[in-house]
Structures are given as C-alpha cells and as structure tokens.
C-alpha cells in the first residue's frame, strides 16, 4: 500500500525547498535589488561619498511629497506625521556622512520637515521643503551620479 502525504504537507515541503535559498532579508539586499528605496537602480559611482548610498537606500525620503500632500488636505494627519518623522530620522543619519557643504542644506530640509510636522503646513513651510529638496538634489547629484 502506498501512503501519500497530505496535500498541505507536500506544498509545505515544496515551499520550504523553494525558499531555502531565499534567506536574505529585504534590509540586507543591495539597493539595486530593492523596489522600496529612493533610487532602486543606484549602483554607486567610483569615489562616491557614503551619503550617496544612504540617500539612494532611503525608504522614507520618497514619501515626503505624499506626506506633504496629506498634511495640506488633512492637517494633523498621523500617517503623514509618521512618514515625515521617518524622513527626518533618515536625513539626520545622512548628516553623519555629509561633507560640510551639505550640512546647511540637510539641516534646513530637516528644519522645514520638522516645522511641517510640528506646526502645520503653511505655504512658507511648503516652499521651504520644496527649496530644500531642490537644493539637496542639486548638491548631491554631481558627487553621487544618481540616474536621471
């Protein structure tokens, strides 16, 4: 008599075997293989400063426009405030890596995002965020060589 394993057990064994080689967590994956980061295709250019990889690997910075939009329509939106807090935290971590020329740009962007989160989104704060993102992008692009 041939005994067969239950279908659920065969599927479990099949899934376990198929996933045996897939033990790398998303956080450990190279930036170029992740879809939830600011610049998924970034491979780094020769001599790029460490902050380039940190910016490219950001998971919170791409959410800034959405968070700002949510706050514009719904002041005090908790989800938007949480997203801005994550972006602020990532930018503060970038401050550890940046050269002095970027300190002001990153600091001003952090201040603008903090103001949006804590005091509300005014037109002036929205303009400061936009200008801060533009300035930071202009400053880091030559050193990082992000794909355009």
UniProtKB/TrEMBL annotation:
Keywords: Signal. PROSITE patterns: PROKAR_LIPOPROTEIN. Residues 1-27 form the signal peptide. It comes from the Bacteria. This is Uncharacterized protein. It comes from Blastococcus colisei.
